[in-house]
Amino acid sequence: MCKSEYKEKFLEAIKLGNQLLSGWSVDADELGDFIDRIEKSGSQNRNRSFNKELVELLKEQLINKGFVKPANKCLEYSTYAVQLIEDLQDRGRLPELPFFLTVGNVYYKGEPEPSLASKESIEALIKKGKGVSDVNIHVWITSFDLSVIDLTLQFSLAAKGKLAGQPVAMVTDPLNKDYVYEPILVNNLFDRAICHGDLTSSWV
């Protein structure tokens, strides 16, 4: 899958999020045009630097709020990070650039971690409503330039003994040779549909 295919999947995931969840929506066509302009601007290095600085800020804020054990808490950490970003933007501390709560699959060195979600399984999860006790998905943040901000995956891999070295919160291309991301649904209110207020660990 090349980056343009990822972008197609991401925009389809936006549409699915608009369809399945009310209260937050994005025009996928306008977003596609915005992404095209970002890609043509030649600002990839500047954008990557901005995203890395943002991750450091998020880590500081999360630790201050008591978020200190990221393993197996992708939904909790990513959801709270999006809320932090939006709050910082409202207070003028960050530029008004879009960031998206993204739900789907991740492959580590070619293998899914640990099983695959689908449109059907995510739709079924949403239909069950609040109080879901076991969330078998992966959740991350997609930046305005289609970079992936993943606050938990390496910590979860390390907890399973699959990662050598010290785990970190990642800013990565969505199609990194070791980490391949497949978006299925994008909606910044996803957590509120399934377990807001009663959030338990998800698997990655």
C-alpha Rg (nearest Å): 16 Å
Low-confidence stretches: 196-204
Can you write the helix and strand succession as a string?
HHHHEEHEEHEEH
Q: Please give the count of helices.
A: 7
Biggest sheet details: 6 strands, antiparallel
Helix content: 40-55%
Q: What is the average per-residue confidence, as pLDDT, rounded to a whole number? A: 88
Taking the alpha carbons of the first and last residues, their distance comes to: 22 Å
Strand content: 5-15%
**Classification by helices and strands:** alpha+beta
| Shape type | globular
Number of strands: 6
Task: Give me a quick take on this structure.
This protein has 7 helices and 6 strands, in the order H-H-H-H-E-E-H-E-E-H-E-E-H. With 204 residues, the chain is an alpha+beta fold.
